[in-house]
Amino acid sequence: MTADADAALSPATAEIDAKIQYLLPGSLINRRFWAPGEEYNTGEYAPYDVKIKNARLAGPFTLDDHGFAIERHKTDITDWLANYGPDGEYAKQVQDVARQMTGADFVIPMGGMIRTSGKTSKDVQPPAGEAHVDFTEKSATQLAERLYRAQRPDGKGYDRFICFSLWRVLSPPPQDWPLALCEGPSVKDGEGTHNTKVDVDVIPTGDDLFVEIPGEEDMMAATIFRYSPDHRWWYFPDMTADEVIFIKFYDSDHDGAWRAPHTAFPDTSRPDAIERRSFEFRGTAYFTND
């Protein structure tokens, strides 16, 4: 479906009934295989009925209270494929936004990607369609230290770090697969299990999905979640190109909201919804002793 710029959008309601994919209790070998344009989870998931509330009608949402926040950010970037890397022009903008939103004094950009609910390619991935956070505590801590030492080998270290994503839409509203965000405090600290990230050229099949991987316990891993009725879900309908959502993947300071589970979900409440295209960029923000 295509959007008519002159046509009025269908209204976004105060909350919507939706389905979110959660990990089933009996799922034992959990891996997410990444190949160009394709991703595959070995975990066993099922859709659970949830209510997702309209964040435009509530808030304000803050990083310390909720684990996510929305901010206005206008960019002149148009070639997003050229801005996947940590040295691009958009990476510099991400650093500025992250410093502004967190108060961190040092930000290391990691990289970005386009996701779409439409046709994927070797450079464009599908939406991540299950409740997750992109790192575990172990993988976030190891990554943050490795990145910091690579940039500042003689640095004095840091008291706190935040692994994050800055997420924005590239397609006009309303989007057919918007982003749902779970309030960090509605998730217990002990919830979640690891989901190993495995980069491959081609997704394996059958028993090859489950063969032993030497050193798997030290590979990068996400955190995936089982259903809880306590989880409080929100979304920002009708996002525009001049807005960004900052999502905490992991904050080493656990005094406030230190992570925000999230997922794409199909919004069937909007008959005029169009194909979602979005750009996400990861980074790590540090509160240093330098």
Low-confidence segments, given as residue ranges, are none
- Total number of helices: 3
Order of helices and strands: EEEEHEHEEEHEEEEEEEE
Largest sheet, described in full? Answer: 6 strands, mixed
- Alpha-carbon distance between the two ends: 52 Å
Share of β-strand residues: 35-45%
Q: Estimate the mean pLDDT confidence.
A: 95
**What does the overall shape look like?**
globular
Gyration radius, in Å: 19 Å
SSE layout:
Elements lengths: L14 E9 L7 E5 L2 E4 L3 E10 L8 H4 L1 E5 L16 H14 L3 E11 L7 E2 L6 E2 L3 H15 L6 E12 L9 E4 L10 E7 L21 E4 L8 E3 L7 E9 L10 E3 L12 E12 L2
Parallel strand pairs: 2-11, 4-13, 6-7
Antiparallel strand pairs: 1-4, 2-3, 5-14, 6-16, 8-12, 9-14, 9-16, 10-13, 10-15, 11-12
